[in-house]
């Protein structure tokens, strides 16, 4: 009996995950804001991408991926559709994606989060794992952004402040 | 009816979270391994801590925090108890903590994950949020480690390879 109970214990609800993710997105938004315009698009370390490129990657995944999951569309991932010229372009698109994420996330059922889906025709995992990947990937790249800011002599926002 | 159902949808089980976390820990272990001995303890960018210090922080949180949660002990967080001299010291302790995490994580009930706990006498949040923080904090610092490795001309392990 104990074993069965343990195997199906809930860790968190979908609402809690969405709030957690949007909290992270809010922090990433402030990291984008913290970069000077020029360095956002040009500064890098060790041959890695500038932070603007990383932000475009994040923008190209979250909402688009959720839409694909909801509509069961396995079309390939594409970063070419959004080519920002300014920090303002990025922040505006960032805020639009906040709404797209809220819209599609709410349409995924509890059962669906456990089903396998071939995201972008390439990442065949349970939906909850794909969603965790979006959040993890954002934290990972943002950590890189923290180093860029420190190397530029700019203090990044506190990691634990999310709203 | 729909509203009530939506509000309590499960995102993932506790077993899935533990597997996810240990997958990340496995990747972090390989990042530690990827550093040359000297650079692990000395290399840094922008005045940030060397990766050995970050690894000690991670080691000082996960298992210790879970033990505190299970035993309802709010004793303060402390990084002074473990002072590694070599990469091998860190990796050995890392593996010991893997078992500590598995041991204590399994003792936290579904209800407990939703209860507020004053972790380390300082971080008063629902237990599931504290656990997410441990994972997020690890991804954040490891992202920093990736930049250190790239700056050293070393290719880091793939972000998506966890086991």
UniProtKB/TrEMBL annotation, chains A, B:
Alphabetical UniProt keywords: Metal-binding
Q: Does the keyword Metal-binding apply?
A: yes
Please name one Pfam family that this protein belongs to. DinB
This protein's superkingdom?
Bacteria
The record's annotation in InterPro entries points to: DinB (IPR007837), DinB/YfiT-like (IPR034660)
Does this UniProt record's set of keywords contain Metal-binding? Answer: yes
| Family stated for the protein in its record | Belongs to the DinB family.
Name of the protein: Damage-inducible protein DinB
Protein's organism: Chryseobacterium rhizosphaerae
